[in-house]
Amino acid sequence: MSSNSAPKVGVIMGSKSDWPVMEHAVAMLERLGVAYETRVVSAHRTPDLLFDYAKTAAERGLQVIVAGAGGAAHLPGMVASQTPLPVLGVPVESKALKGLDSLLSIAQMPGGIAVGTLAIGKAGATNAGLLAAQIVGLHDAAVRDAVEAFRAEQTQAVLDNPDPRPDAQAT
């Protein structure tokens, strides 16, 4: 985030190729004014980095970690095993199984290692950003107000455009 405030949310992904999905989490955090950091942290290629990132996240001021991964999707669970912070897992669509493999890998955590699992792809990343903001908003009134304003905008957009036809005029 471009502001001077310390990051509250870590947005990590298993590879640079996950960015087209994970950028939607970042866009939501930016929209809601939540300070974040983002980087590639691979569970398989950089396990020492993963452990260091997760173990130091709380002391660095993070309050939530959003972790996106495809395929075997070990990143969210491995991060959750190394931090007391909430971890939100975003399944990134894979070529082989369209993200179902990622979804099941993230959702099927053993009891005692919790990962909040979101939808596959863009919707999941968007909602992970929103949910991370809601968590930060528990202790930050400005973020909570931004979430409430976002929801009010969504409601108003539906009320202003009740006719689903593309060429319909708002009433």
Fold and architecture overview:
This protein has 171 residues and is of the alpha/beta class. It is built from six helices and five strands; from the N terminus they run βαβαβαβαβαα. It has helices at residues 19-31, 47-56, 75-80, 100-107, 122-136, 141-160, and strands at residues 9-13, 36-40, 64-70, 87-92, 116-117. Strands 2-1-3-4-5 form a five-stranded parallel beta sheet. Helix 4 (100-107) links the parallel strand 4 (87-92) and strand 5 (116-117). The N and C termini lie far apart (38 Å).
Secondary structure layout:
Layout lengths: L8 E5 L5 H13 L4 E5 L6 H10 L7 E7 L4 H6 L6 E6 L7 H8 L8 E2 L4 H15 L4 H20 L11
Parallel strand pairs: 1-2, 1-3, 3-4, 4-5
Helix pairs in contact: 1-5
Organism: Vreelandella gomseomensis
Function: Catalyzes the conversion of N5-carboxyaminoimidazole ribonucleotide (N5-CAIR) to 4-carboxy-5-aminoimidazole ribonucleotide (CAIR).
GO molecular function: 5-(carboxyamino)imidazole ribonucleotide mutase activity; phosphoribosylaminoimidazole carboxylase activity
